[in-house]
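ENTRY TYPE: paired fold submission
RECORD: A
CONTENT: sequence, then structure tokens
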Amino acid sequence: MCEPALRGLRSLFPGAEVTMLAKSVVAELFRAAPELNRVLIYEDKGVHAGISGKWALAGLLRRHGFDLAVLFQNAFEAAFIAWLAGIPQRYGYATDGRDFFLTKPVIVPERRQSLHQVEYYWNLLKPLGLSGSAPLPTLHVTAEESHELEVRLNILGSSRSEILIGINPGSTYGRAKRWLPERFAEVASRLAEQIGHDEGRPVVVVILGAKGEESLGKDIASRINGRSVVLSGATTIRELMAVVMRCRLLITNDTGPMHVAAACGVPVVAVFGPTDSSTTAPYGQERSVVREPVDCAPCLLRECPIDHRCMTRISADRVYDVAVQQVSGLRVRGERPGENNSSVPQTSGLRSGRVLEGYTIFLDRDGTLNPDPGYIKSPDQFELFPGVAQALARLKLAGARLILVTNQSGIARGILSRHTLEAIHKKLARLLDRVGVTLDGIYFCPHHPDDGCGCRKPNRGMIDQAVQEQGVDLERAYMIGDHLRDIELAKRVGVRSVLVTTGVTRQQDVEGLTESHRVPDQIAASLPEAVDWVLSDVRRGSVPMHERQVLRP
């Protein structure tokens, strides 16, 4: 949950070498994090145990010559180790009696109990100059790790064409956090049958869990009507991340994999009992939480001393309904999961959730779907942002048509060929196929910016071609892109627009747009967040065409 703050730290010190010191379980999560230069392991149960171990660790840190220590951890030992290492600037919350060891103690925010942990970590950096609100957490899985997972699943009898539904029925820190195993099995069985029927593709339930939870996983597998794979106790942290990212949905208790799924852009259904969802819900998917409002919760106990009513009163029907809405993209910000909200029809099937039937979503490519290095010259360079494939799957399940429109002047500049571009788009198709997504069209402009063509964005040529060839209704269309020319194109053709700040246009760049003709209808920190807004915008009822400001060519 501190990952957004790590990106914030990098934005404050773009040229610095940033090293993370963490215990091995946490360190594994960040092994491929682009905001870090290095990860050091804190072996608190091994070579770094005791005073002698802390002294040895301090010596290691001292040799690196760090200028600043930012302590996301609240523990006394974190500040003590930084002080012992002689790091001149030591920055962290003034907790656990460690003020003496901090050169810049930060006052703990009031009402911390109601502040989400993501925001708690993000706010720590505000005295250093960080501004704005925290973006969604993001975790990265390498292409090699994804490939190794597919090989493993193939050995277990699961093919890439199959849809995976993940369930995580255990919890490391106490049985009180566990929903009932038979209800996990019931929900997984019903959801697998429904999705398989609706999409005409086989569905496999993947059961996840930590070491020691193998018997729980096998018990649930024996109750599931359909195919299942038990991976409880059989994955490393990195392998767990790869499995979760491959899933269409994860149904889970309040656990670490819940946060991993949210950070990978995977829809979550999170069953909360004794813990506090206001501080540790999956960030950005708070609407996914299912909980029973009993007087004794949140108690934060590991074992329930009475009848476990916070969990036993949560029915399989409630969790199933939220799962259907999550997969279908029906959830609207501000709803309370489990309530019968009139704006969200209760449904037993996924097809009734196709709220985007008849809609078209135009998508930019570089900086929107994938990192933009300037020019992508080969398929090996092309990787999607985390969560993009799953977000597009939500649009597809909701009934939308997806059309890519991308400027590719690298062809005219001689940087890449049409054949290479085709190979890149074939890789894009393979990456999307893993979650059952197919693009309905790809349109690209190969011309140089000086050619004066009518197809290079913000000119409307590619959109007009899509309208002619695919019968797109611009009254029911959206444009999502990372560049101001995407927003200008949207204005020219009269569609609503979302600017994502994952590419060339950053949050600070859009502050002066109010006086221009390139004001987006929404600004989002990522494509998954943009998809959230599009779905909620359609549910609300967007601005009619005749009320929009349209720039004519």
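RECORD: B
CONTENT: sequence, then structure tokens
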Amino acid sequence: MSTVDKQLEDVRETIDEEVPRGITVSDVTYEGPELVIYTRDPKEFATDGDLVRRLASKLRKRITVRPDPDVLTHPESAEEQIRDLVPDAAAVSDIQFLADTGEVVVRAKEPGRVIGRRGETLREITKATGWTPEVERAPAIDSPTVENVRTFLTQERDDRRDILERVGRQIHRDPMSSEEWVRVTTLGGCKEVGRAAYIISTADSRILVDCGDKPGERTEQPHLDVPEAIGSGATALDAVVLTHAHLDHAALVPLLYENGYDGPIYCTEPTRDLLGLLTLDYIDSATGRSRPYGAEMVREAVKHCIPLGFGDVTDIAPDVKLTLHNAGHVLGSSVVHFHVGDGLYNVAFSGDIHYDNSRLLDGAVNEFPRVETLVLESTYGGRNDYQTDQDDSERKLSERLQDAAEDDGTVLIPTDAVGRPQELLVVIEELMDSDEVPEMPVYLDEMIWEATAVHTSYPEFLRDDIETRLQADDENPFLADQFTPVGDDDERRDLAARDEASVVLSTPGMCTPGPVRTWLATLADDPDNTLVFVDKQARDTLGKRIQDGADSVSLDGESVPLELRVETIDGFSGHADRQGLENFVKTMHPRPEKVLCVDGDRSATQDLSSSLYHDYNLRTFTPENLETFRFM
């Protein structure tokens, strides 16, 4: 008998001792980080609302209870009972039964009303039908991405269950070494913007944090081939943890599966869906040999995702617990916290953070039980990297839109699909609704519209006021009449050639190859038009050359003169500026002993590192790529 089987046998004995007589436990197994209990008496389990909580506390594990298939109410009868139990105000749109797991997926516009106070309605559903309910939110804007991911995972549930069982056995295996140490190895993202990738390793486990590309430089990948990463075989990795779905942090995650990795990806649910959206677009926009992987590898990555909520403490290796916290950067973005060993050491990776509240998101969380080392982004870490505040940024945007209205010009805003455009849409909708800016068409490239639809699927990750507005059709800021998605280059050229005031939000943010270049080619020669940068422009990108004052640019092999105005409004960035980064560390509880400044150019990382050392007496480092730091 393996050690995991023996462990499950002991767990089974504990459960049998704890559950009341009359409740039969037919099987106990691990699925990913969760302990799954199968029972012939799901209704009795549901009757005692505290039973699962008591078992989870005693066993110190996350627990899911599933019924044996042969004790379930027939789906047709069960659906009638579910609709009777759930209030009409929940607006249930679909009910789907998964017989192999005993789960019933209830999709509703108001999922909280399906759940009920403290989960009461969910328990009533199980008591009445035996089925275990899972609740999904029906988005205010139909999202093919969300729908495709959910359908795909349903179709692949057998494979996914096998994956989860294998991952669960790997997590709960016996330690292989009695040594105790913690190391962080930098595979990319050091003294540069992009290709973020880091390994945190112990004597027993190896975990990859992020795996991104470098903007404008698809040939520069993280150093995955070194022994500390997958140079010794992709199966050496226990897990991948993804802070968020932006390509500079996630573009090359599917490449891991191309190279033989078959393990889990831990992230939030919206990050999982956005990973699929953005990486498919990433390879679609590549040509020929520059495609690092195919669509099948994107599907493999999505299939291996294990979504976690903020604050959930989760075992991901025999000696590592993971907790995700809101990073305030984009939908679902996380500060990732690792607790190693039995109180041995704690490391937090900031990913990309926004310290203050934005229009969409609450600011980054910086309170933890313990943190000895912080790996901190430094994108705006330079001594002069201070952004204008939100009110001033919105005022400047208002002025540019008023100018466009007066001149019949177009304001072109290059931006990545996720994060900034949704912030801008909320602001633009408010400016036009209040008549501060005349109404005019706002054209959104399809990627931005689709990412916006994903936002409406996960309003619980947004600020409370935005969540409330998204759930009210007449107040949803993303459903303004002025907002129009645009799908192809011919349509872009036709719209750009019109003599009318308009706004265009187009990808990507640094003007690397993508739809924004089609807009730019048509709009560039008219001084009534304005190009407004709201994102960081990395070195050696087209956006940076334009921002630095180029008179002309090469687009599709032709030299295009730049007659339009060029401005930068930096207060919409999803990154904390220099002051925000310092405040994140200054108010962090507890304050870390060491800080590694990464994900910024050389001067930014050095400036931030020096300031944190002198002002807060911290041990700070500015790593090079392929450095290893041992902390124990």
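NOTES ON RECORD B: The chain has a mean pLDDT of 91. The first strand starts at residue 25 and ends at 31.
STATUS: closed
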